[in-house]
Amino acid sequence: xxxxxxxxxxxxxxxxxxxxxxxxxxxxxxxxxxxxxxxxxxxxxxxxxxxxxxxxxxxxxxxxxxxxxxxxxxxxxxxxxxxxxxxxxxxxxxxxxxxxxxxxxxxxxxxxxxxxxxxxxxxxxxxxxxxxxxxxxxxxxxxxxxxxxxxxxxxxxxxxxxxxxxxxxxxxxxxxxxxxxxxxxxxxxxxxxxxxxxxxxxxxxxxxxxxxxxxxxxxxxxxxxxxxxxxxxxxxxxxxxxxxxxxx
Length: 248
Known about the structure:
This protein is of the alpha+beta class. Helix content is 37%, strand content 24%. It has a single domain (2-238), classed as Aminohydrolase, N-terminal nucleophile (Ntn) domain (Glutamine Phosphoribosylpyrophosphate, subunit 1, domain 1). It has helices spanning 2-12, 24-34, 84-105, 111-124, 171-181, 188-200, 229-238, and strands spanning 39-44, 47-53, 69-73, 76-82, 136-144, 147-153, 159-161, 164-167, 212-218, 223-226. A hairpin with a 2-residue loop joins strand 1 and strand 2 (47-53). Helix 3 (84-105) packs across helix 4 (111-124). The model has no long low-confidence stretch (mean pLDDT 91).
């Protein structure tokens, strides 16, 4: 019984390490990320692609209320997986930092600088009593000095830079697909195609435009742009991924 009570103490206290050096609440936050629908980021030679699975649970739900891709600044986009409310808090934090940097220094914030500011903020919630970690992972993509950059934030507060990655449900399967098909020389349109193919690989090979979110940040223009349903449908038709089944 004594061992069990000690286990519960490590389990409940965010500031307490277990004897084997683990923070259980951070690990539980990672599990919350896995329960979210998938988000994908791909860095190409001429920009960044963000793609998300916006699966609608009910036909009564307004599709526009499902937000998984966000504009943080003109040159930076963010995709999330995990608790949506936690994601919104971090995205608001990122937007404020981007605006402050523009006002203070008269220049756009760097993607790496913004990512590390966000992860520093996340990390504080792994050390403070009376709070819990953020149950969300973010993919932060953008253009810095003309070069595409792509980062992941972890609930522990650690930033990682990637060429291509997935967060959320089916991460392992999607990243296996990306590893097999990713090419550093691919262009933006090819990156969009790869992102859609990777999502389709865990969705019976077919996708519907209304169930997908897509955004690109072009390196030449350094501009975030979210694609419309019609544009997504065009890409799905081009790659023979369109689910043409009747809507229920």
